[in-house]
From TrEMBL:
Transmembrane stretches, start-end: 146-167
Naturally occurring in which organism (per UniProt): Pseudaestuariivita atlantica
A Pfam family it matches: PilN
Entry keyword tRNA processing: no
Coiled-coil region list: 169-203
Gene3D superfamilies: 3.30.420.380
Region forming the signal peptide: none
InterPro entries, per database record: ATPase_NBD, PilN
Protein name, entry field: PilN domain-containing protein
Domain of life from the UniProt record: Bacteria
Length: 299
């Protein structure tokens, strides 16, 4: 509601005389109507506060200090508010609106008698309709709680809406992260399996080489058996020098060394059988010989 000076109240206005007490006392209804009242500037004190531009963050403190120094009022005596400051060079200038607490208390009492309950007192003409006094907590103790509850509900609703909007993307991101983790695990398992396969291949190669060495190379027992089968009873061996690919036989024979070379060469197990040393005759008439032969691999 607004205060009008002509004493003729209209809808959403009240006469100025109701506040100042200059008119007749008005009795209102029993049920009080809660109002925010806009008063003309002439009912409050208008002051100008100046401060250095660098003191913008402490302007309210400076305004309160200036109020103490230049007026007989302290903060416990008045309601006050500041308009947004204006900057001119290095100086801040702001308008301070001041209302005595005693006057405001009297206005509230007269409004109560007229059926109104004052919630906020606003100065007409103040920048942004600045509130000079707020009695919300006094006339509606639960209002702040309701406002807080409404704000909490609004935040919950906004959070739920945001969650509903972001959840699909979050879920997709979570699934993508899980898939990436699974891919990384499978890659690691693949590398481990590859190492295992390579180790098995190496073991198989070693095993194959081992069996090849056993089956493809001649062994001493086979060589001895073949030599024994090839030589006649009249020949005997003194020395046999064995290597994996060749053997050297030294001994004596009642026959001829050349016959022994032919006998050994006829065996499939031997290649390139030859006399590798001089043939001599012993005192008993036997020939002493040295025969070399290459060994053939037999599976």
């Amino acid at each position: 509601m607004r205060v009008v000076p002509d004493g003729k109240p209209r809808r959403r206005t009240i006469p100025k005389a109701l506040l100042t007490g200059e008119g007749p006392q008005v009795r209102g209804r029993r049920m009080h109507r809660v109002i925010d009242l806009v008063v003309p500037p002439d009912l409050v004190l208008k002051r100008t506060v100046t401060a250095p531009a660098t003191a913008r963050g402490k302007l309210e403190e400076l305004a309160l200090l200036d109020l103490r120094r230049r007026t007989p009022f302290g903060p416990e005596d008045v309601h006050w508010t500041l308009d947004p400051p204006h900057v001119a060079g290095d100086t801040l200038t702001a308008t301070q609106w001041v209302a005595k607490r005693a006057d405001v208390a009297a206005w509230r009492e007269r409004l109560e008698e007229a059926g109104y309950r004052l919630r906020k007192l606003v100065v007409e003409g103040a920048s942004g309709s600045r509130t000079i006094a707020d009695f919300t907590r006094q006339i509606a103790p639960g209002a702040q709680r309701v406002i807080g509850l409404n704000l909490a509900l609004a935040l919950i609703a906004a959070g739920a809406a945001t969650f509903g909007w972001l959840y699909p993307a979050w879920e997709a991101q979570r699934q993508a992260t899980r898939i990436e983790t699974e891919i990384a695990r499978l890659r690691s398992d693949t590398l481990d399996l590859r190492k295992d396969v390579q180790a098995l291949r190496a073991q198989d190669a070693e095993r194959s080489a081992f069996w090849d060495a056993i089956t493809d190379r001649p062994i001493l027992v086979d060589t001895l058996r073949a030599v024994t089968d090839a030589l006649p009873d009249e020949a005997w061996i003194d020395t046999l020098t064995y290597q994996p690919d060749r053997a050297v036989l030294t001994g004596e024979t009642g026959g001829t060394a050349a016959d022994l070379v032919l006998r050994l060469n006829a065996r499939d197990r031997f290649d390139n059988t030859r006399l590798s040393g001089a043939v001599s005759r012993t005192s008993e008439g036997a020939e002493r010989f040295q025969i070399s032969l290459d060994l053939r691999a037999v599976r």
